[in-house]
Structure formats: C-alpha cells, structure tokens
C-alpha cells in the first residue's frame, strides 16, 4: 500500500498491508511511497476530527485514523478519500478502543499510545472493516456527482409531496431547493 506496488521497503524491511500497522508511515519527508495527494488530504482532515475531545488529539489516535482512512481510500478508488469520512470512522474506533480502556469516559481517558501495540492493531483492523461495511452501503454518497445523495434528495421530495402536498407546493412557490 505504501510503495509503487503491493509492498515497499522501509528501513530494510519489506512491508505491505499487513505491515501497515506494525510499520506506520512516516508523516514527514519525501520518499514515503505514498499517494501524496491522497495522504495530504487525510493528514489535513484528521486533526479536525472531534477537536474538542482529548482522545482525538493524541498522536496515536491521529496516526491510527490516518492509516485506516488511507488504506480505505486506496481500496476504493472510485470515491477515494472525501472529507467527512473521518467523522464516520470515529464511532467505530472509539467503541473498539473502549473495549480495552477501563476508564468509563473513553473520550477523556488515557493516551491510546500507552496501550500494547497488538491492542491498537486490533482496534485499527476492526475499525477498518466496520467502516468498509458501512461505506459499502452508502459509497454512492462519496463519489463524483454524489448520485446517492441526489437519490436521497429525490426520495425526500417525493415523500414530502405524498405526505404534505401543501408543504411541497409551498416549497415549490418559494423556490426552496431540497438539496
């Protein structure tokens, strides 16, 4: 995932998708072998994720989210990474992390970087697959022209007309756009 093909050499060690968690990508400098434009979008967006919650300000949390989102985007080139997917991944990440943190307020709990690496790897993997399953059903919302969103808006317009014709007519007269 981080090289030109399915594997890359990093510090003399061959890595691929399986090595992604154990050899996280370098986040600065050239020669990482990443899709730089895609990585750049994700690296800009992740720090904006839940900025008021301390959990999402820890480096371990942000690096984990970056890897999950990057691999998902590589595996789904039709949509790639789109702003907002970071907000879809966080509930899964937080729930799976909560299985390993005893503090009932996981949002303000300890730095996930203090957990053993196999624990973080498990949280990351489970989160990735849950995000994948969620987005499989709504990926059309995240591709160019967003046909999924347009279908939902059309369905809302039709539903409004069936349930409350006067309201639908009022929207039409006032030129209210459902989008």
Task: Give a short overview.
With 179 residues, the protein is mainly α. It is built from six helices and two strands. Strands 1-2 form a two-stranded antiparallel sheet.
Please provide a written account of the structure.
By secondary structure, the protein is mostly helical. Helices cover 50% and strands 3% of the residues. The protein contains 6 helices and 2 strands, in the order ββαααααα. Strands 1-2 form a two-stranded antiparallel ribbon. Strand 1 (8-10) and strand 2 (13-15) form a beta hairpin. The chain is elongated. The two termini are 36 Å apart. Mean pLDDT is 80; it is low at 2-30.
Class based on secondary structure composition and strand pairing: mainly alpha
What is the number of helical segments per DSSP (H or I, 4+ residues)? 6
Low-confidence stretches: 2-30
Order of helix and strand elements from N to C terminus: EEHHHHHH
Strand content: under 5%
| Major sheet: arrangement of strands | 1-2
Tell me the number of strands.
2
Query: What's the end-to-end separation, in Å?
Result: 36 Å
SSE topology sketch:
Blueprint: E1 8-10, E2 13-15, H1 36-45, H2 59-75, H3 85-98, H4 117-138, H5 147-163, H6 165-173
Antiparallel strand pairs: 1-2
Helix pairs in contact: 1-2, 2-4, 3-4, 5-6
Fill in the keyword field for this structure.
179 residues, 3% strand, mainly alpha, disordered N terminus, 6 helices
């Amino acid at each position: 995932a981080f090289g030109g093909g399915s594997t890359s050499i990093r510090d003399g060690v061959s890595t691929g998708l399986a090595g992604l968690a154990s050899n996280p990508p370098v986040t600065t400098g050239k020669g990482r072998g990443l899709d730089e434009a895609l990585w750049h979008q994700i690296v800009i967006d992740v720090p904006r994720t839940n900025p008021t919650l301390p959990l999402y300000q820890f480096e371990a949390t942000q690096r984990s989210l970056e890897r999950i989102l990057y691999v998902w985007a590589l595996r789904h080139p039709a949509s790639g990474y789109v702003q907002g997917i970071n907000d879809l991944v966080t509930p899964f990440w937080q729930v799976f992390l909560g299985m390993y943190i005893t503090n009932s307020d996981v949002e303000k709990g300890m730095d996930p970087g203090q957990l053993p690496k196999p624990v973080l790897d498990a949280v990351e993997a489970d989160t990735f697959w849950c995000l994948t399953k969620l987005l499989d059903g709504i990926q059309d919302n995240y591709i160019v022209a967003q046909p999924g969103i347009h279908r939902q808006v059309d369905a809302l317009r039709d539903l409004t007309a069936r349930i409350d014709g006067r309201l639908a007519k009022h929207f039409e007269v006032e030129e209210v756009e459902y989008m």
